Amino acid sequence: MKTEVVIALAACVLAAACAPVAPKPTADAKSATCNTTEPGARCNVAVLANGSQYRCELGTFDVDPQVVELRGGRPVNIFWTLSEPYAFCGQDQVYLKPGVNKDTLQPYESFGSETDDGARGANQAVFGKCKAKWHWNWSNNGSDLYVYNIQFTDTRTGRKCTIDPFIRNG
Known about the structure:
Blueprint lengths: L2 H16 L12 E5 L6 E15 L2 E6 L2 E5 L4 E7 L3 E2 L5 E4 L10 E7 L19 E6 L6 E10 L5 E4 L2 E3 L2
Parallel strand pairs: 1-4, 2-5, 4-12
Antiparallel strand pairs: 2-3, 5-9, 6-10, 7-10, 8-9, 10-11, 10-12
């Protein structure tokens, strides 16, 4: 076999081995069904300190539920809530994990909020202001599993944390 062919084959094998593999939730991951059949449906996700599911330099955290199971096939509002001293600050946000998810248009609107209803009043528009909640308007098309990241900050120290739970359309 010619050297060029061997090198080309080796490069293909290496590229396939290094391609991102979509993570899967563990068998014991806590799931919750969110019914999206009614217009304006809402799903709540809490990020809880002192948990055991996720670890970063700020400590350990749980995401409740770890897997959001959407049922009904209609668009839905998804709200993530952090408790003090954690908040979405600066470039922090909830976002689909790069390189894993094919359809990045599922969240067609994404923003921080200080209110439970996701309202964005005059105070919401202040760039860089830390927010305790993050809101997605999610299109809920198809039946894929989505891996997303939650990036937030400890407001006392400015240190960041990123954790990665799941959403399953349905």
